[in-house]
Amino acid sequence: MEVPILKIPFDQEDARSIGEDLSRMLLSGHLAMGEKCRLFESALADFVGVRWAVGCQSGTAALEMIARALDLAGGSVVVPALTFMATALAPLAAGARIIVADVDPISFQLDPEALVSQLRPDTRAIILVHLGGFMSSRWRALVSLAQERGLYLIEDAAHAHGAEIEGVKAGSLGVAAAFSFYPTKVLTTAEGGAVTTSEASLREKLLTLRQHGQKNPGSNLHESFGLNYRPSEIHALLGLRMMAKADWILAQRRAAAAIYDQLLAHSPLQAIQAAPGEKPAYYKYLALLPEKTARDKIKRRLKDEFQVSLAGEVYATPLTRQPFFVNNPQSLAGPLCPAPVAEMVAERQVALPIWPGLSLEAQEYVVDCLLRSL
């Protein structure tokens, strides 16, 4: 049996419907920031439980727009050691410097205690990354910490479309959140991103930022700094189709995760469990290998002998070991501190295939081959 990394959940009916809408769109000549974009933004805001969503070109662009709109330039921003490099690069592009903090050993997300010791007088924001589609069991502590210290809490929700904990959705915890819609994500528009927020003044700044600083698009008057972060109608069209089946996609991922939980219950692997009251989006199904396991050899054997492809880790290299920071120490607000939890997770984690429509037979095969490889 061949088990690929993922299958994007578009079907024949999606192709037919999208094709018809695309034909009308092409003939209309309206390809950027039109009706489809407005409808997608409205649907996403309702889905997340905030007042507004502002579409843009990518999840990285969404993070940079937030950092610029909040005027983080000249200050420092805390990011977790276990995240994609874009989480740090976006505020850097907006003129901030970076503090890298370790993660907690349960959800592998920002550890409130670890980051407190690294806060500086110039710290202006904390970026909480919902790793793998899970939400932090320490989210209340992080919200309280941000409020007490007068810091912006920003969510990197690129993995977490539809994730929730204690009835609160990812993308609604802080002042703003960034979403990505890359093809591998829980919901995809092929490329694209969005910012979600309930802050009216922030939304106005974001709308101006994405249009070269034009407060009134088409006026040819540029009131502030801005670049081209505009979304396209074509990507929004795909997004609307995704939003229509979002509940089904999440139900499929959660059902597959429950099966993996059962299959791995008495195995040497430590599956990452949802916190009480949490409904992860399961962008990744994460598990920890036994200590000192040669992960690369396991993955090669799975691929070569069993035709099972494991997804990429989140992430195999923590920020504390990224060459960029060694080569560009000026990007950091201070020396890099040890991040032992992030180092452990980066070394031991694997991500099992998970997508809507993944069969029970395929999941049993994946686990059986993984255990045989171990």
The assembly state of the depicted protein chains is single chain
Distance between the termini: 19 Å
Treating each run of at least 4 consecutive H or I residues as one helix, how many helices?
Answer: 13
CATH-defined topology of the largest domain: Aspartate Aminotransferase, domain 2
Low-confidence stretches: none
CATH homologous superfamily of the largest domain?
A: Type I PLP-dependent aspartate aminotransferase-like (Major domain)
The radius of gyration computed from the alpha-carbon positions, rounded to a whole number of angstroms, is: 21 Å
CATH C-level class of the largest domain is Alpha Beta
Strand content: 5-15%
Principal-axes shape call: globular
CATH second-level architecture of the largest domain: 3-Layer(aba) Sandwich
Number of strands: 13
The description of the largest β-sheet is:
7 strands, mixed
Calculate the mean pLDDT score and round it.
96
Helix/strand-derived category reads: alpha/beta
Strand order of the largest sheet: 1-9-8-5-4-2-3
Q: Helical content, roughly?
A: 25-40%
